[in-house]
Amino acid sequence: MKVLVAFCVAVSCLASAQLLRPDKMRLGVYNPDTKHYEQQALGQDTHDQQPHRPALLGQDGHDQQPHGQVLLGGDGHEQALLGGDDHDQKPHGQALLGGDGHDQRPHGQAQLGGDGHDQRPHGQAQLGGDGHDQRPHGQPLLGQDGHDQRAHGKPLLGQDGHDQRPHGKRPLGQDGHDQRPHGKHLLGQDGHDQQPHKQKPHKHNKHKAKKVLGGDNHDRRAHKKLFGQGNHDYKKHGKVLGGDDHDIGHMGMFKSFMKQHNKSYKNKAEFKRRFKIFHQNMKKVHILQQNERGTAKYGATKFADLSEHEFRKMLGFQPHMKPATSSMEPAVIPEDLEAPVSFDWRQHGVVTPVKNQGMCGSCWAFSTTGNVEGQWAIKHKQLYSLSEQELVDCDATDDGCNGGLPENAYEAISKLGGLELEDDYPYDGEDEQCHFNRSLAKVTVNGSVELPANEVAMAKWLTKNGPISIGINANALQFYVGGVSHPLKFLCNPESLDHGMLIVGYGVHTTKYLHRKQPFWIVKNSWGEDWGEQGYYRVYRGDGTCGVDQMATSAIVP
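RESULT FIELD:
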């Protein structure tokens, strides 16, 4: 009996199947030529009630992929292909998201930022809850800098999640910086926007937090170094934070400066006075850095708490002391002499270590002894460290700690009968009674030469004859940290010489990124090795920067 029932059921099913239409059996359309039912290719059916061109959406072939059942347009399409959010259930005739046609682009890869956000449901605003995914993606949304084109999988700027916050508001600092291009480092061009923006607790109360700019206490961090040495407060700011002078010479910087240079003041009034001077000086630093044409960095050097008057007192180069009739001879420079690309007398053992004139305006004396030391070493193969204090005390033409000129000093050495050694007549940085002992003199001078105001000729003369004494405008020197200094003329007048120095060589610097050539002089200073580049200054060579070529001289030794 069971066998008979099974047979009847099978026969009944077969009969029912034969009554079904071929298209309902998914046999396709009958082809009279081949006498077979043939399947229709995707894209040539009634999907969306219209014929499909190849890969209708975005030309990426997503319509060529298998769909859960029959296709959209009365076909019961059940499987949302992109993002699992049913966007394939909506008409594709118009661009769906933001009116920007992003649905017309290939969906094979994540559209925005390469982070797969287009693979997620679009029913809700993806980033920050601010609906930015509902806006056109054809152009970068925030700041015109394309940051919306980058991966949003992790917080983009500073690892602090600011990209996860609503963009309708200005998240950082309430200053609209998020509305500006992020392609460059925005504030100070120093990458501070790449650091986490977290708020730190108050120093004395962990429950109370004092907000600095942006609510992140960024400006409350310790500054290990001063301007131009790797911290955002030391670089050129397109705009100062907050639109005021908060970042220029604030109290935190001043205390860091005091610690770095072992500064202390006798009372609170002096502390306040020095802080006020420091604050004003940092404004000057800002101006110098903004207008720098070379690679120099300027910042809070050990002289950053000195007023302009105090700083000028320690210079001492006095062009007005030049005699009406000069005994100097013009330097002879052969026209056929070829100068090498670079040269440095320090490598030839004719330059003594960097000295320190202190607060005495005796730069002229140090420039003079440096020149004579080099001339004597080149001619006699013996390098002596000579006495500046002898010149301060015994040169009657010049004015000791109140200034002088190398030209006068050469003649004074000749009249005195020579220079003693530093050890025999040590430097104390004050005007004293002359106690020169001629029997202890180690070197003598019997004349001097004046070089032309031509830097090519100066380079030729230097390579053959030795270091050159010069006068220079010191306006950029008070805050010089390092690099090739090339200030604008209005910041370093070449006609206002006030500091004596010593050129010991020259070279050419090539900038890191643009590969620009910057020829420079290597200039020895007398402010100690804790100033500049271990006591040296590199200044641009070729256009008379700061008057470097205006009063170049040298002694003649027997």
